[in-house]
Automatic annotation (TrEMBL):
Lineage: Bacteria, Pseudomonadati, Pseudomonadota, Betaproteobacteria, Nitrosomonadales
Enzyme Commission code: 5.6.2.4
Catalytic activity: ATP + H2O = ADP + phosphate + H(+); Couples ATP hydrolysis with the unwinding of duplex DNA by translocating in the 3'-5' direction
InterPro entries named in the record: ATP-dep_DNA_helicase_RecG, DEAD/DEAH_box_helicase_dom, Helicase_ATP-bd, Helicase_C-like, NA-bd_OB-fold, P-loop_NTPase, RecG/Mfd, RecG_dom3_C
This protein's name: ATP-dependent DNA helicase RecG
Spans traversing the lipid bilayer: none
Keyword Cell membrane: no
Gene3D superfamilies: Nucleic acid-binding proteins, P-loop containing nucleotide triphosphate hydrolases
Coiled-coil segments: none
Record function comment: Plays a critical role in recombination and DNA repair. Helps process Holliday junction intermediates to mature products by catalyzing branch migration. Has replication fork regression activity, unwinds stalled or blocked replication forks to make a HJ that can be resolved. Has a DNA unwinding activity characteristic of a DNA helicase with 3'-5' polarity.
Length: 688
């Protein structure tokens, strides 16, 4: 039942250069040829009489050249007149031409011209039509002619030839049972391919080119279904591994909650229950906790950790930057030390002695909660009994890094720790249904009460003096402020210089204020000292690079200035802005921009100005950048959809989701066959 997918390299008639060109288009096997779908079509299926032509339409006419000359005024052009059987004339005009074309348009030649008709000075004309000399008996095409996406050096003719060949020689057999597609009025796989590559003359071109024809929809459905099947199978495979079943916490969580100065929001309670339930299972949790900046994910993570600890297991929290990890460490200390829980710190920049002490505590199990950076998954780190791994800002980590943390706790092939990933970049629903279908998702969809919304202002760089006044006022009133330096992607050295210059300039501008500087190239101890001073209120104005983008939590800071905001991405701006508005004071975020904005930069600033809802912003970000860029690192492990479009095909996605569960349960052989067709070229999917 398996589909045989010969590689194109095995086909003798395909030359090396052709093979290389096909590869550039991602085509390496017959299946790839079949699924290389046309961008658009041209109609060579009938001949239009010149008297029936209409301006603006594509048409094919046939006739005899009755006049041809090269004109030099008003500019050089090859002009020919074609007369058809009805006796009418049509002008063919070429502004660029070769001598061979002059020869091909000799008076007396019979030819077909295909092009767009327009009203010229001397009646209808076609500019640069596609011409083909014909004899009386040359038949017209029977189907519409596909125009494929291609690459330099690969002609349409050659693509058409090989794709036709694939249609005749490839495997077009059905991979799905009829009940999977017929109720949705979708055609068979074979029918779909034939109609997309070679549509009948009467086919609805608009429908085809807009990708809403049932044929395109069928392939989009197949692709979405394959994605669901592979993600869900992967999910099931991980679920089949064992994990410690952690009984609900009786004492520690209650004690923690009692010690807090606030009560959980109902959204926090809801996700805490979801996580708590997962932890009681004897297979590993694989959950993504999403919540907008400031929604309070950290406390939820701490509750999960306590459930593990109360059951005698260790928990670990990993954060992507030292500043954030350090902050988590402090917070966990504050929260958990009173409960007599040993929290251990591990980072790459620790001195040798401290590090050795930490490593030992992790290995002998006295470290109950370990907080750290990437250092957590280095080789020397051995956990005595890791029950739960928590990864904050998961999108900042590569697929492999997340995988290795899970393997850390994997004491045997059959047992793995529970895993909780957290993300402040909300993932729009369609993405979470598709690219994240291998995870369970919890969402904190409400912010703690008492937050005052951040007022966002767009200010042209020329008016930065007014901004200085704002900063002075805020600091004089006892608030604190961030000044975020421009992002300079091209050069780290330049980035550093800009940060130093900005720092010097602000120190000069505000001799009466205590100004601090933090950037990515500082030593960890220096960074920590600066952050501690800012948290304690000793520094009033903190000049920072985007290192503060993730997670930093200083409630007394109520003003943020972002320089060159037009250079930053939407989620980055949203994250940065989320650093203020964390206390009761009225907060503001000032986006300084350089005039001469590009269209996308303008669109981004408009969105961030108008919305403060992370989900809205994420949706807009997705629309601006597309799923590939939006997903960032994750994409390194996940093949992108090529035919389906999540926005257009949301309904198909929903159907595919339901059907995938049914097929996996009841029709595993169909699943195998379908995946083999659709994922044959995909690298083994590494997902964590
Ligand atoms: P994020 O989801 O961005 O990681 P944090 O966990 O850092 O957010 O929480 C942001 C701030 O809100 C912290 O100072 C935290 O202590 C506080 N916080 C969390 N939950 C609540 C709540 N239910 N009520 C009030 N404040 C809360
Ligand atoms: Mg956080």
């Amino acid at each position: 039942m398996a589909i045989n997918l010969p590689g194109l390299a095995d086909i003798k008639a395909i030359s090396k250069p052709l093979l290389a060109n096909l590869q550039k288009l991602g085509i390496v096997d017959v299946q790839g040829l079949l699924l290389h779908l046309p961008l658009r079509y041209v109609d060579e299926t009938h001949i239009t009489a010149i008297r029936d032509l209409r301006s603006g339409e594509q048409a094919q006419v046939e006739g005899e050249i009755v006049h041809a000359e090269v004109q030099y005024k008003p500019r050089k052009a090859l002009i020919a007149q074609l007369q058809d059987a009805g006796g009418q004339l049509l002008v063919l005009r070429f502004l660029h031409f070769y001598p061979s074309q002059i020869a091909a348009l000799k008076v007396g030649t019979k030819l077909r011209a295909l092009g767009e008709v327009r009203q010229g000075f001397f009646g209808y004309e076609m500019v640069h039509p596609q011409c083909k000399s014909v004899r009386d008996e040359t038949p017209v095409k029977e189907t519409l002619t596909p125009v494929y996406p291609t690459t330099a050096g690969l002609s349409q003719a050659s693509l058409r030839k090989w794709i036709s060949w694939a249609l005749n020689n490839g495997d077009l057999s059905e991979t799905l049972p009829a009940f999977a597609y017929e109720p949705q009025a979708l055609p068979s796989f074979a029918q779909s391919l034939k109609n997309l590559h070679h549509p009948a003359p009467e086919a609805d071109l608009y429908q085809l080119e807009d990708h809403v024809s049932p044929y395109w929809q069928r392939l989009a459905f197949d692709e979405l279904l394959a994605q669901q099947l592979s993600m869900r199978r992967h999910y099931a495979r991980r679920r089949s591994i064992g994990a410690p079943a952690l009984k609900p916490s009786k004492a520690l969580i209650t004690a923690l909650l009692r010690s807090l100065p606030f009560a959980l929001t109902s959204a926090q309670q809801k996700v805490a229950v979801e996580i708590g339930n997962d932890l009681t299972q004897n297979h590993p949790m694989q959950r993504l906790l999403q919540g907008d900046v400031g929604s309070g994910k950290t406390i939820v993570a701490a509750m999960g950790a306590l459930q593990a600890i109360e059951n005698g297991w260790q928990a670990a929290i990993m954060a992507p930057t030292e500043i954030l990890a350090e902050q988590h460490y402090k917070k966990m200390q504050d929260w958990l030390a009173p409960l007599n829980i040993k929290v251990t710190w591990l980072s790459g920049s620790q001195n040798k002695t401290d590090r050795a002490i930490s490593l030992e505590a992790i290995a002998d199990g006295t470290a109950q909660l370990v907080v750290g950076t990437h250092a957590l998954f280095q080789e020397q780190v051995v956990f005595a009994k890791l029950g739960l791994a928590i990864i904050d800002e998961q999108h900042r980590f590569g697929v492999h890094q997340r995988l290795s943390l899970r393997q850390k706790g994997q004491t045997s092939k059959t047992k793995a720790p529970h895993q909780l990933m957290m993300s402040a970049t909300p993932i729009p629903r369609t993405l979470s249904m598709s690219y994240y279908a291998d995870l369970d998702v919890s969402v904190i969809d409400e912010l703690p009460p008492g937050r005052t919304p951040v007022a966002t202002k767009l200010v042209a760089d020329a008016r930065r003096d007014e901004v200085l006044t704002r900063v002075r006022e805020a600091c004089e009133q006892g608030s604190q402020a961030y000044w975020v330096c421009p992002l300079i992607e091209e050069s780290e050295a330049l980035q550093l210089k800009t940060a130093n210059d900005t720092y010097a300039w602000l120190q000069e501008s505000f001799p009466e204020l205590r100004v601090g500087l933090v950037h990515g190239r500082m030593k960890t101890a220096e960074k920590q000292a600066v952050m501690a001073a800012f948290t304690a209120g000793e520094i009033q104005l903190l000049v920072a690079t985007t290192v503060i983008e993730v997670g930093v939590d200083v409630p007394n800071a109520s003003l943020m200035v972002i320089e060159h905001a037009e250079r930053m991405g939407l989620s980055q701006l949203h994250q940065l802005r989320g650093r203020v508005g964390r206390g009761a004071a009225k907060s503001a975020c000032i986006l300084l921009y350089q005039n001469k904005l590009s269209d996308t930069a303008r669109a981004r600033l408009k969105i961030i100005y108008e919305s403060s809802d992370g989900f809205e912003i994420a949706k807009a970000d997705l629309a601006l950048r597309g799923p590939g860029e939006f997903l960032g690192l994750r994409q390194s492990g996940v093949p992108m959809l090529k035919i389906a479009d999540l926005e257009r095909d949301t309904e198909l996605l929903e159907t595919a989701q339901g059907l995938a569960e049914q097929l996996l349960k009841e029709y595993p052989t169909y699943v195998d066959k379908h995946l083999e067709r659709w994922l044959s070229r995909a690298e083994e999917l590494v997902k964590v």
